[in-house]
Every structure is written in structure tokens, then in C-alpha cells.
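Same chain as my last thread, 210 residues:
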Amino acid sequence: MLRVFLMPLGFHEDILLRSMTHLRVHRDDVVYVVTCSPLVGAVKRALESLRALCLRQGFPEPRVLELECRDFYESVRRVKSVISEHKGVELYFCSGAGLRILLHIIEVALLASRKPFTLHYEPEAEGVDTVTIPSTLYVNILRKPSEIEERVLRLVVESGEITVKEIAIKLEIKEKTVKNTLTRLKNLGLITKKGKGRVAATQIAQVLCG
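reply #2:
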């Protein structure tokens, strides 16, 4: 599947290159470098260097998306418009570089597009782990769970691993209700199946219930 990357660019291109390397960006992927308009000298130099390094290392040539950052909502609409041009793709938002306003613009545009995406955080400091966050985290933070979903999820989080039968007994509800609830929670990225009919909470669920 084609992948589309949105990467804010600041004064240095090294963080973007590290992100491309960690995510194994392929020549057929699409990379948007997002900057504020007008481009200042340091950003221009970083962009020129990035283009040369992408060519040398076999990465796709970056497409530049200049935004009038003083107009926040118009910038969001522009990014959202670019996102909507790509159908049936995997979306990645590579954070860690660029002005903070660019990060917020891209994040809001992705949420407004209602398309699933992955946030990849590339820390500036060497030796610090990268962080990958699925958009389901945002969805579940904003979504209010039903009472039964909340009870089941909290029990799964507290139990570590647990079976459908054990959940039904502890919560005094029917196994069919448990199965239906677990299916919804799995589709939301909140639980995962383990061996021998057991389920466990994902990291997202642990954050929500912690």
C-alpha cells in the first residue's frame, strides 16, 4: 500500500532523514515537507540539503507544502485538502522537527480528515527512543465509552490477561454480551487477543484507564 508522509521542516534536515530511515521510506512513497511561508534562509538551505540527501540515499524527492502559518485555519484546510487527494493510503505524521505551529496544523488537519494515521515522533536527542502513536488513541480519548465497555475494559486492564468466561463471571453478565463488547473494543484498538482464548489490554487502553 502506498504511504504518504507529512514532515514539518525546521532549520535542520537530519531529524527528517532519521525518520525516513526508521520508517523505511520507499522510493514509491510520497513525502510532503511542510514549512511556513515565506521560506527563510536556514530553511531553504535545509530543504536543498534534504533534496540532495534524498536523491543520494534513494528516498523519494520531497514535495514542498508552504503554509501561511499566520492564518491557522486556512493552513489546516490546505493540509486537509492535500490529505484528501490521496485515497486508500497509509498516512504518517512525522513529528520532532519544525515550528510548533506546524505540528498543530498538521495534527488538526489529520483529525479533521477523519482518516486513520500514525504519528511517528523522532526525538532530537540521539539515543532517545522513537515513539509511534496510532490515531485510535485520539479517537478513544474523544469517544465516550458505554458503561459496559468501560467496565469490561477496566477489568481487562486490571487483570493483565483474562478469558471471556472469567469476565462474564466477575461482572455477572452474559458471555454473549462480553464477546460483543470485546469485538467493539478490539476494533477500537483497545484490546488484543492472546493464546488460549485470553485477551489483554493494549497500551492505549492502559493510558485511558490508568
